[in-house]
C-alpha cells in the first residue's frame, strides 16, 4: 500500500475545495527574504496574473512585464520560458524584475485561498492578496499587461 503524503495546499485546502489559480490576479502585500522583510522598489508591488485562456503566467515587479509558460504540479508552480518587455527602467527596477524571474523559475511552492496566495522557496516568502474586479485602467497597464500576439518564447 502506498502512503499518500499531503502538500501544503492540500493541508490548508483539500483538493476538492481548493481554489484555482487560473483566471486570478494577485498583488503582493509582503515579501520576506532570508527571514527579513524585503523592501521593494518605491511605489511598486509584485503582480501576477494566471491567464486561464493560454495557461500562462504574467508577472510584473515594477518595470517590465514577463510572461511564462506555467503549470501547476501538486503544490509547485512550474514557470518557465520567460519572455519580457524591454522597457528602459532604473537599475533598481531592472534588478527587481530579474530577482522575480529567478524566483518564479525555481519552482516555488504555493498555497492558495479565496482571498490570497503565498509563494515560497527555501529563503523567500511572498504573500499576495487576490485582486477582484480590477479597474478597467489597470488591465493592460503596468499592473496586468495582456499577452501580445507572437510573444511566446521571445522578448517583445
Plain-language structure description:
The chain is built from 2 helices and 9 strands. It is mainly β. Strands 1, 2, 3, 4, 5, 6, 7, 8 and 9 form a 9-stranded antiparallel beta sheet that branches. A hairpin with a 2-residue loop joins strand 1 and strand 2 (36-37). The longest helix has 14 residues, at 91-104. Mean pLDDT is 81; it is low at 1-10, 12-16 and 136-156.
SSE topology sketch:
Layout: H1 8-12, E1 25-33, E2 36-37, E3 47-51, E4 56-60, E5 65-73, E6 76-84, H2 91-104, E7 109-112, E8 116-120, E9 124-130
Helix amount, in percent?
10-25%
Low-pLDDT runs of 5+ residues are 1-10, 12-16, 136-156
Order of secondary-structure elements:
HEEEEEEHEEE
Mean pLDDT: 81
Percentage of residues in strands: 35-45%
| Spatial separation of the terminal alpha carbons | 50 Å
Total helical segments: 2
Structural class: mainly beta
Amino acid at each position: 500500500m502506498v502512503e499518500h503524503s499531503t502538500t501544503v495546499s492540500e493541508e490548508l485546502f483539500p483538493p476538492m475545495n481548493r481554489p484555482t489559480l487560473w483566471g486570478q490576479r494577485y498583488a503582493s502585500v509582503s515579501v520576506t527574504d532570508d527571514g527579513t522583510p524585503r523592501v521593494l522598489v518605491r511605489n511598486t508591488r509584485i503582480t501576477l496574473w494566471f491567464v486561464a485562456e493560454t495557461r500562462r503566467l504574467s508577472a510584473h515587479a515594477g518595470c517590465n512585464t514577463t510572461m511564462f509558460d506555467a503549470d501547476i504540479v501538486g503544490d509547485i508552480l512550474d514557470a518557465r520560458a520567460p519572455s519580457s518587455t524591454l522597457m528602459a527602467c532604473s537599475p533598481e527596477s531592472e534588478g527587481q524584475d530579474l530577482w522575480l524571474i529567478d524566483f518564479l523559475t525555481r519552482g516555488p511552492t504555493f498555497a492558495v485561498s479565496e482571498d490570497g496566495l503565498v509563494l515560497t522557496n527555501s529563503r523567500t516568502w511572498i504573500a499576495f492578496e487576490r485582486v477582484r474586479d480590477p479597474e478597467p485602467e489597470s488591465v493592460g497597464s503596468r499592473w496586468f499587461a495582456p499577452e501580445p500576439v507572437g510573444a511566446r518564447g521571445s522578448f517583445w
